[in-house]
Fold this sequence. Notes:
It is globular, with a radius of gyration of 31 Å. The chain has 25 helices and 34 strands. Helix content is 34%, strand content 22%. By secondary structure, it is of the alpha/beta class.
Amino acid sequence: MPFANIILPLPLxxxxxxxxxxxxxxxxxxxxxxxxxxxxKHFYTGIVAEVMDRPPSEEMEYKEIYAxxxxxxxxxxxxxxxxxxxxxxxxxxxxxxxxxxxxxGLKLESExxxxxxxxxxxxxxxxxxxxxxxxxFGALPTKLTASELARKTGLRNILPILSSLMAKGAILVGEExxxxxxxxxxxxxxxxxxxxxxxxxxxxxxxxxxxxxxxQLLLHFLDLSQTLNPALAKELSKKELLESEGGNTxxxxxxxxxxILEYYEKEISRLQRHVCxxxxxxxxxxxxxxxxxxxxxxxxxxxxxxxxxxxSSGKTELYIHLxxxxxxxxxxxxxxxxxxxxxxxxxxxxxxxxxxxxxVYHSKFSDNERVEVWNRLLHDGSPRxxxxxxxxxFLPFKDLGLIIVDEEHExxxxxxxxxxxxxxxxxALVLANMHGGKTLLGSATPSLDSYxxxxxxxxxLVELKERYGGALPPEMLIVDTKEMKRKKLMKHPLFSPxxxxxxxxxxxxxxxxxxxxxxxxxxxxxxxxxxxxxxxCANCDVSMTYHKRQGLLVCHxxxxxxxxxxxxxxxxxxxxxxxxxxxxKVEEEAQALFPSARIVRMDLDTTRTRTAYxxxxxxxxxxxxDILIGTQMISKGLDFAHxxxxxxxxxxxxxxxxxxxxxxxxxxxxxxxSGRAGRRDKRGKVVLQTSQPEHPLIQLVAQxxxxxxxxxxxxxxxxFRYPPYYRLIILVLRSRHEPLVHDLARIHAEQxxxxxxxxxxxxxxxxxxxxxxxxxxxxVLKIEITAAIQPVRDxxxxxxxxxxxxxxxxxxxxxxxxxxxx
Length: 822
């Protein structure tokens, strides 16, 4: 009997071996999904990694595969190799990669179901929580999942209650497979086969001569569907027929009962259809044409090319020409974006050129929509361009000819939690190489890693310095808020007089304003004036941010929230003050200063729904919004035609952060958000408010001096052994017991030092050392960039095993590795 190694969607390093039943021997192949038992009762959807004739060990007992889900593989061969590379390079488990890569709709898992015991009689009064669970079932016999019971009862920790009820014999607990992807169907209408000839139709109308409404509906159906001419026949949905005719369902149902028409179910797509007329490519400007030729030349010598193009230089148009060339060659293209917010504008531009060749994929899609995109790519071999965020890398591409990583400097390309903690830009280079394709990295402010690779000759480098249409870069006005406050000229706490004057001038000219503050909420901190008490999160070591619209104090690390206290719990007074400001406060103050202006805020709080991005951006494009206030999501590649002024309200907050990348990221953010101003035939203006106007970084931003910033930062990083000269790996250790994680982190760091010497730093306490009820310590490794990752992985695993062997409590810690944490 053959065997199969199965990957499970669990944080497990190893594949698990199962026997293949005799009736499935010829059907189970690499890349197929199978249902397997794992543990005592649970079912999981596994992926077949390999099929073999012999098991790893003849002495062991192996479970059988329970069921096969696919007649053909749902993964292509390069995908499994890509998964294995992600797991190896980013020091995570293969099961973590599987869980992140496959849409949830393709993973069937067992779920605990609960039913009432029909013969149960309580011998003693039940607890209120236990009675609430039993009452949730109602009068009819039914099965409910544990999550449904929690939702119905409002009880948070329901498992101990179920365990108590099961011990008393009140409930029966079982396991059932949770339903995954469901195909969307719609009811369509057609003539019954008996009535498709001319003679039969005349007979049908004779039958209906006493039913004028039915006769009229049948005539309308024939007119819409053109059924009597098979060459022009058109499928007609029930919904379309009733809406166009204005008839009612009862008349249509009567025609179906009489056997003249019949219903049938048809599978339809959930994916958005791009109904705009496909247009020809726009001609490139001379500067764009020169850059286009240089990119093609770079691809002859390099697998990867960095396009360093100024803001509003027309990089997207150049991308479109490259995509068209690859599609003409019969290959696929992946266009990566860092944020969902940008996909709204780019989707419209690409759809106008590529029509139905375009597929969009991002996290706001439902599980079923993601599965449909997956299946479209898997079963349709036609050339396509996929526009998506970092998770798009895991889609089943057949033949990738080009990956475009737009705004490649963005930190959003790095997955933080949960594992795999991969960087989409770096992973894209590997994926493209596996397909024999090319990678184009594009940015106005490239990451220092990519810029260094381009300067050193590893990547090709193409520069596009000229703005589209000869537009001038925005005029930069630096405002010294500290000096203005000293001279008592700063009448408003958020807006300096020069910024207010520019906003008034811009609004009067019928143009738009963007205000940038990279902090959401109303105020970052609330404090008691009498004793200095500050409300802090119960689960994290941070102060809570005040959100005025919700009337809540919210932790931005774990989501914990509470109502602001009426009295200080420390001293009993009721006098509180707020410190700092976020986008919510900016919105309130702007509305008070400019009451007639139409003001919209764009941050995580206002864009939680799928359509919120599209609505906010579309309204701003159509000039239905005068002032747009936002966090860093407004800085990422958005193209607005009528922005006269951009205000950066608090530049200092971007620089004063304990991270070696702080200056690089502050420069990128300020230059990117400045690039939203004056993107057409008018020169825009940027008002940058700071208390450090002579700071070297502020001066570099004002001059747009990227090369000078990069040279200075690269010199510092070379001196202190930081990327791109060294690779960083951070070991993160977490525990609910602070003394335990403190002592064991120190012991483990010493163990690593015996293997890696001075490459090991720490353990260190991070700026936020208590998150989600876990105490955190970090050990930092600085590894030579030329070192292979696999030997380092082996050393780290060996060190962890040796520490755990000497100190069994080490196994109680949560340990993960963060490779390239930037």
